[in-house]
Design a protein that fits this description.
The protein is α/β, with parallel strands linked by helices and about 575 residues long. It contains 19 helices and 22 strands. It is globular, with a radius of gyration of 23 Å.
Amino acid sequence: MINYKENYNKWLEDNFFDEETREELSNLIDEKEIEDRFYRDLEFGTGGLRGVMGAGTNRMNKYTIGKATKGLGTYLLDHYGVEVCAKKGVVIGYDTRNNSKDFSEITANVLTGMGIKVFLHSEARPTPQLSFSVKFLNALAGVVITASHNPKEYNGYKVYDEYGCQLVPWQAKQVIQYVNAIEDYHTISFEGNDSLLETVEVTDNFVSEVMRQSRYEDATAKADLKVVYTPLHGTGYVPVTKALDLDGFTQIGLVKEQAVMDGNFPTVVSPNPEDRRALEIGIEQAKKTDADIVLGTDPDSDRVGIAVKGSDGSYQLVTGNQVGALLMNFILKNTDLSKYSHPAIVKTIVTSELGADIARKQGINVFSTLTGFKFIGEKITQFEQAKLKGNTEQNYDFLFGYEESYGYLAGTHARDKDAVVSSLLICEIAAEAKANGKNLLDELQEIYAEFGYYKDALDSFTLKGKDGVEKITAMMSQLRTEGTPFDNTREVIDYSVAVDAEKGFGQLPTSNVLKYILEDGSWIAVRPSGTEPKIKIYYSIKGINQDSAEKRLTDIQNTIQSKLGLK
């Protein structure tokens, strides 16, 4: 077991750690804070690194970044050789968070110092643009410094493979072994080699690929749509406004105070477009300008949230599942499916079945993956590799992928969720609806009338620190030991043991998720977050109408939360 006090004293007294780090540590007086910073090493897991910034082994800082990067670099050198690494190298991107640029430069210095070529984005740009860049530049891997929509105290480090897909467990396991093998920070060199560093700017190339996904050509309808857009102090500003302008949207009202790139996110509690509070300034601007729709992208512009003006003039948020269904309906309606031999869509196991039902009705193959867009990206790669190898059994044509947490991807230009292409398509749906005398809420009601009402919800409980981690572990153990808390349970799926994937793709990786499927097809899923100290409970409840679904949801929420002592 790690002796946190011993680790603390090592960092405090060792001149290898810079003066700023040691001064920060010397000012700590709360013993719990010291313990939390040093009771473990910040884990390099299947999602890379993510944590609170600060000094300590359990924090995001120069040294934990350096350790992860040395592990990644050693892995690449062992697998590809010095020559290939010096030529093809790694692409590095970063968002607008505090320290993101500094961390990207530290990553670049460690890699170039190891003899590995680095292509460093010249400006803060979206995560999907990093994903695109890896393939575009024919690199071996990618790294992006971001903590997505987390609060300002957080940052993260995500690794991508040669296809631009975030590492999935079997790949990450190999890199993790190299990272964990580094037991001494003193072995990390932060001296870079500038001859191996190239600064790149590929925004126009990225946006050009995004534009290929445009599905609606009515220029008059596009010019008539009034949009308010906020990048929430993040990376979406340049590519989103560029794409909308190229597509013919002329009435884009930018939330100027939130277009400033600022890692303190001064105008919001949290830069999460799932949270209405993050869109409040945009909604107020929309009320003044009578806008039809509000778009908000998170700091690394891989997620987008929207608010829609209803018939009564108020602005209503649309959930990730609802936007997924709208996008699914629009894409399938505006795609010549005869061009594809085996069209397919991909969603996650905690995403509503509504969009999938729309696809199934048109004979589209539906795949479900574990939570995390990397698994959707992996499916795209599997489909493409099957096509190249002539494997007819696994040869599918990817049309669309989405997850309930406001992440969507149309096209294969990226292997990650992309708020740039999503913003483009959402505006096209809204323009088409307005041209037909409707709005997106009307479009949703038409979908419900055809497929039934779905009430989807997510409860997320934050339990910080070492004690919180232990409580979350105990909750999952309790559910597995005591059985289903719900009446009329048809099936319980425990993804911590092997579960077969669809259509001959073997088995899903194991994951700490429990899913309860009820007799009517409603379901509840429980999973700890892989990147934050949270336990999440997902609900997808079917009903004959909104009132019946909402009442049933309340009853089910009370049942599970009482069971886990969360009420």
